[in-house]
Amino acid sequence: MQEDSQSESRSSFLRTGISEAALKYLAVAVMFIDHAACTFLEIARTADGHRMFAVIPNGRLLDRILRGIGRIAFPIFCFFLVEGFMRTRNRLKYLGRLLFYGTLAEIPFMLCIFGNTRSLHLDTMFELAIGLVTIWGMEEAEKRLGGRRVLLFPAWLAILAAGCAAAHYLHADYGWGGILTIAVFYVFRHNRYLGLPGAWALLSYYNSFEIWSFPAFFLLDRYNHERGRQSKYFFYLFYPGHLLLLYLIRRAVFGA
């Protein structure tokens, strides 16, 4: 009887799928885990200057596990960036929100993830903003060139090269790999069988540690195109908010 109930539950899951809200809440949860591991195991140091993962038992393994879990978040954000791009009524406002909250998060991002480094690293919101502009340009090229693929493909390559260069030279989080991942989701938005494995393979090629993002692509395959109950501004506010919180806790406990 119990086995029948479990079988029915699995069948129901496969049949109904997962809503956008559920996937986004999962993404922010694993992002928090990832950033907490980075903040307290990699950046925080003991009084004699050792990183925490080097002094606690199995600290390096724990760090790798938690950071591996965190790899799930970024592909989900990229996927829903494309979804949002396709259905938003005002793309300029969408871009403006990414830039505004990216600016709001930049200082907490630098303090939380990079500690005392003086090198510029743009946070993930800026990466998504560059990706949004890139696929917007690709769409405009498609509209203007129509079915003339002999011209469309070179135009797409030029736009992608510009987007990747911007992410790379501005030191945006995920660099050119994130831009190409967004572009793959956009190009194959109507074909998950190519888009999901293609994006995973590309992201893993960009950074081999991203191979651990695989669960995200399995979950995205279960996406049922339902929005679910969610607050749009929760996700925007959570990003700078959790970075600031983690930094303040680290500073209070470790002094830096």
Structural account:
With 256 residues, the chain is an all-alpha fold. The protein has one domain (2-254). Helix content is 77%, strand content 0%. It has helices at 2-16, 20-43, 52-55, 59-70, 73-87, 91-114, 124-145, 149-169, 175-187, 192-206, 214-221, 232-254. α5 (73-87) packs across α7 (124-145) and α5 crosses α9. The protein is globular. The relative contact order is 0.15. Mean pLDDT is 91; it is low at 5-14.
Concise structural overview:
The chain is mainly α.
Distinctive features:
256 residues, mainly alpha, 12 helices, 0% strand
Task: Walk me through the topology.
Elements: H1 2-16, H2 20-43, H3 52-55, H4 59-70, H5 73-87, H6 91-114, H7 124-145, H8 149-169, H9 175-187, H10 192-206, H11 214-221, H12 232-254
Helix pairs in contact: 2-4, 2-5, 2-12, 5-7, 5-9, 6-7, 6-12, 7-8, 7-9, 8-9, 9-10, 10-11
Mean of residue pLDDT values: 91
Morphology: globular
Q: What does the radius of gyration come to?
A: 20 Å
Percentage of β-strand residues = under 5%
N-to-C series of helices and strands = HHHHHHHHHHHH
| Biggest sheet character | none
* Distance between the ends: 56 Å
Helix content: over 70%
Q: Structural class, judged by helices and strands? A: mainly alpha
Query: Could you name the ranges where pLDDT drops below 50 across 5 or more consecutive residues?
Result: 5-14
Q: Could you say how many structural domains there are in total?
A: 1
By DSSP (H or I, 4+ residues per run), the number of helices equals: 12
Query: How many beta-strand segments?
Result: 0
